[in-house]
Amino acid sequence: MCMELTVLGCSGSGPGPDSPSSGYLVWAGGRTLVLDLGNGTMGALQRRLDPFALDALLLSHLHPDHCADVASLVVYRRYHPRPPYDVTEHRLPLHAPAPASERLAAQYAACAVERAETDLSDVLDFQVVADHASAEVAGCTVTSRRVDHPCESYALRLEHDGRSLVYSGDTGPCDALVELARGADVLLCEASWPHVWPGDRQPPPGVHMSGRQAGEHARRAGVGRMLITHVPTWFDGDDLAAEATDAFDGPVELVRAGASYQV
User: Fold this and answer.
1) How many Cβ atoms from other residues are within 10 Å of residue 250's Cβ?
2) Of 146, 115, 150, 141, which is closest to residue 26 (Cα–Cα)?
3) Average per-residue pLDDT in the chain?
4) Disulfide: which of 5, 113, 120, 197 matches 201 by Cβ 3.0-4.6 Å?
């Protein structure tokens, strides 16, 4: 049985008028996991799945547009009046960079005093994502590589029943993404700006990729198909997908919020 990817949100750097921030629901062999849970994605998740039925959550990094709605998920699991099970005995596995437990508690807390006392481990089971690490998560083998972004950020490779999906997370151009994505069936890759900015300015290094750079990474990795995501509202996603198409001779598609894709 192949994997299915549903886009909860794909707007880069913050929610847009037509999409929440980054969040992707993956179905694999009857089990479910979510890659990132940015601003607005909790609502989109509930249109697709009872959050209590979610098997795992993975965070590529801890910028708000990729993790802000974890606070809403905690509230849902902690205070729902009719949970289907004891949430303290069935904590949700959350795989994320090492600072996640402290960072997400600070995000959840109402003030500095409360921050020191906030603990989310009653409903979340924190697992650390690290470079070159591998783990079994909700029916998938997940391999992580650290990529080039201002904070600790990981690209994630999911493998299930002979199929493979690689999610770039947020990254500038880097060999680690190419190595992780080698031969993958689908590369879900960020493209956050055009290759040349207005005024012939070059975008800053070590933050995000252009459409052309995303396509170059797909070509170098020899992936089967490329899905472009994380386009901010102030850039044209079709233009970035066209850049990727010029650099990669495989299928390229710009994802849309609410759409589903077979892996």
Assistant:
1) 15
2) 141
3) 96
4) 197
How confident is the model over 181-233, as pLDDT tens digits? 999 999 999 999 999 887 778 888 999 999 999 999 999 999 999 999 999 99
Bridge partner list, 96: 128
- The owner of tokens 């192949």 is 2
Question: Per-residue pLDDT for 42 more than 90?
Answer: yes
φ, ψ for residue 157 (rounded to 5)? -110, 125
Is 160 in contact with 3 (CB distance < 8 Å)? Answer: yes
Beta-bridged to residue 201, according to DSSP, are: 197
Domain residue spans of the chain: 4-262
Tens digits of per-residue pLDDT, 62-77?
999 999 999 999 999 9
